[in-house]
Prior knowledge:
By secondary structure, the protein is of the alpha+beta class. The protein contains 6 helices and 3 strands, in the order H-E-E-H-H-E-H-H-H. The protein folds into 2 domains: 4-96, 2-Layer Sandwich (GMP Synthetase, Chain A, domain 3); 101-143, no CATH class.
Amino acid sequence: MPSHRSLRVAEAIREVVSSAILFEVSDPRVRAVTVLRAEVTGDLRNATVYVSIMGSDHDQEVALKGLQHAAGFLQSRVAARLQTRFTPILTFKRDDSVKKSIAMSRLIDEALASDHPAGDVAAADDDDPDHPDDDENDDELEDDDPRR
Length: 148
């Protein structure tokens, strides 16, 4: 279990690196990069920054190389913010969790669509007594209104 201090340092690294990537890194290879999280070793000497990169596999590899090239610049920004004896050495790893969640969501939507064709969904809504478009329920709600 990470200590409270290492969690604070990891969050500070995430904030500084994401801000620097967004506003200060001028490398054209580094674009469409989102910093998801950072993990710091127990001795606070190494940090792994997990990033999500949009685009094709080639674009992602190019952006990751650009991040590795800018690691020294980003470490200097982290050093200014942390003011610790040792500045963590930054390494970058691609995190595909966002891409996997989008793919999983797409699979779920396709499975639901295959279970209920477009015509069946409308028919199922007409039979639903709690459906807001049901005229009978609207009449009942109007009769129960105490303001009348």
